[in-house]
């Protein structure tokens, strides 16, 4: 991590530490005081151009905020706001809305309404933090092309549909009927549904890496403090092996997530492959990390009062959002197939390798 990203991470941790520690039994909803602090200090708008009132940074800067918030178990929609919504609004030349806001993807259309305004209709299968934010940022289809809309969460015609959320974000789906948006901003021509999906998948990968690191840190502390048969758990070889395997999985998640963010921030040609690999890897490893953490904590780790559950429930929830590992494995297979089965050329970005090193996958 570069010096400025390290300094940024320390600054974010300073703001997060001023708030309460993660509470496994806390009621769902946004920590508005923490959100106000992060927004007033410019953290939410890190990846927004300066001319739009942002910090002029990149997605790598926003990813630091997302990772640290996930590692702290912070109840704020920074992944949706700073990593997904902010780049979409910036592409449309629109400023961020005031107050807590989230992002969601679905099938929405914006048509001309009475009085020269717009009306939005359609459905959003999942809207994180819907009941405790002020606005929802989402893509819409208009007669003039793709656009990004800012929809008031309390707008008449927006009907939430309750669904369980293990991560605690209280994210029902929503049906929109003749909803008047706060703004509809046109986007340049492009595959914006695909772009938003990549942003969402990368954001969840970063969050899972942060939560996995927090689960590992908690497990290391527990194994060092908890004694059995007269010595700490960490002194037993079988526990050491389990901790080492867990640490390897966490580092793999972090490296994969960082690579995805780097590719997105540089708009590399391999960005879809990097994001697909990161989401597939972090979703797959979330299960083993959560299992190892609970096994090493024993029965205490399963209680609602213990902070470990706040992290592992998030891992279980985030692994399915924006596509689970099976979904992204299939996307990788499609990329290989689209490249004529040339795995080496897809990964390296080069031409086909010599015959003796060539690999081909039949899909």
Q: What is the number of helical segments per DSSP (H or I, 4+ residues)?
A: 10
Distance between the termini: 37 Å
Mean pLDDT: 89
Q: What fold name stands as the CATH topology of the largest domain?
A: Butyryl-CoA Dehydrogenase, subunit A, domain 2
**What is the CATH-assigned architecture of the largest domain?**
Beta Barrel
* Percentage of β-strand residues: 5-15%
Describe the protein.
There is one protein chain. The protein has 363 residues and is α+β, with helices and mostly antiparallel strands. The chain has helices spanning 3-17, 32-40, 59-72, 78-91, 192-225, 237-266, 271-297, 308-318, 325-338, 343-348, and strands at residues 101-103, 107-112, 118-124, 135-142, 145-152, 158-161, 173-179, 183-186, 227-228, 231-232. Strand 9 and strand 10 (231-232) form a beta hairpin. Helix 1 (3-17) runs parallel beside helix 3, helix 3 (59-72) crosses helix 5 and helix 5 (192-225) runs parallel beside helix 7. The longest helix is centred in the middle third of the chain and has 34 residues, at 192-225. It contains ten helices and ten strands. The chain folds into two domains: 3-186, Butyryl-CoA Dehydrogenase, subunit A, domain 2, CATH 2.40.110; 192-357, Up-down Bundle (Butyryl-CoA Dehydrogenase, subunit A, domain 3).
Topology:
Layout: H1 3-17, H2 32-40, H3 59-72, H4 78-91, E1 101-103, E2 107-112, E3 118-124, E4 135-142, E5 145-152, E6 158-161, E7 173-179, E8 183-186, H5 192-225, E9 227-228, E10 231-232, H6 237-266, H7 271-297, H8 308-318, H9 325-338, H10 343-348
Helix pairs in contact: 1-3, 3-4, 3-5, 4-5, 5-6, 5-7, 5-8, 6-7, 7-8, 7-9
